[in-house]
Amino acid sequence: MEHKKSSFVKQKWLINTITILVIILAFAFVFRELQRNKVDVIGIILPPTSDVIIGFLFIFLVVIINPFIWYFLMNGCGAQISKKEASGIWWSTNIARYVPGRVSIIASRVWVARKWGPKVVLESLGWELILTTSSALLASSLLIFSSEISFSYKVLVSILALLSLFPFINPEFSQKLLRKPLQLLGKDEWKQKTVMTRMHYFNALFLMTVTWILWGFGHQFILKSMGFDAAIWELIGIFSFAYLVGYFAFFIPAGFGAREGTFTYLLSIMISGGLGAGLAIISRVFNIMADVVMFFVGGLLMPSIILDEDE
After folding, report:
1. Could you tell me the CA-to-CA distances from 280 to 143, 208, 231 in Å, in that order?
2. 112-118, long-range: CB within 8 Å, 24+ apart, which pairs?
3. Rounded CA separation 268/262 (Å)
4. Rounded-to-integer distance, Cα 275 and Cα 280, Å
5. Which residues does 162 contact at the CB level (< 8 Å), separation at least 6?
């Protein structure tokens, strides 16, 4: 027993050490680009210009829209959840993604939304993974129009983007496949075998696509405050790919470092590395600010939401 406990502690320390190293190395690259190009991030943000404020508002809108994506996914999983309930739960639990590992956000979402059943909530998170991957690949495929991007990348992303549309083409089969591992946990909690329809998935995919566009405009206005302009489709394509890299870095809280490093590197193909690093840092700061504000909004909504079936 002691041996197992010791092995677990060592494994946890190893994961934590690797996580810290990845974050340090990624941010070291970003800050090196800032210093090399003498970009003053604080000077760009403060005092905020109209372009900076508009850029923040676009990113803020992303955080406002996100719960409605989860609302359609939960409906597609068979949960009768209202937009108010989805918003309160999503905003109040999303802050947990800043805790290392994905366990915290999964556990908090499952616990707070326990009225609809843990496996139903877990399934919605599975759909969230599928949707984020698919929409990010579709958005990043905009880079096929860029002459700066290699042909092999264009082919790979285009193929993956097309393959990612399978859940939309056949949501019933995709849902059966997604529920298979969840059924191993015990008795089914779904009222119907399959509920997800193309309309459910389309609504969620449409809103997710809107968020990529909002990110693009937000970044474009922040760049304008630095005295530089870039094509909106390039900014959408680059950020969506960088976001996906951070999203799949499961052991890193909120993709810290992985997203910024990838974003800075890809932007350096189009613009100065220092400007890209500055944009990556400001984007993350604004994202955290929006998450914190909406966390308190979610907290205000929570008292009016019934969390237990017998209440």
Report:
1. 18, 20, 17
2. 112/307, 113/74, 113/81, 113/89, 113/307, 114/307, 114/308, 115/306, 115/307, 115/308, 115/309, 116/74, 116/79, 116/80, 116/81, 117/79, 117/189, 118/189
3. 10
4. 9
5. none
End-to-end CA distance of the chain: 41
**Kindly report the CA angle at 66 between 153 and 225, in degrees rounded to 5?**
70
Cα 185 from chain centre = 27
Quote the pLDDT of residue 254. 64
Phi-psi sector, 188: left (phi>0), alpha (psi -120 to 50), beta: beta
C-beta separation of 61 from 217 below 8 A: no
- In this predicted structure, what is the pLDDT of residue 17? 64
For residue 173, what are its two tokens? 């089969």
Tens of pLDDT, residue by residue over 178-230, are 988 877 766 667 776 788 999 999 999 999 999 999 999 999 999 998 888 88
Q: Are 251 and 18 in contact (CB under 8 A)?
A: yes
Fill in the amino acid letter for 219: H
Report how far residue 163's alpha carbon sits from residue 46's, in angstroms, rounded to the nearest whole number.
44
Nearest to 94 by CA among 267, 254, 271, 277: 254
Encode burial over 33-59: b for 16+ CB neighbours within 10 A, e otherwise: bbeeeebebeebbeeeeebbebbbebb
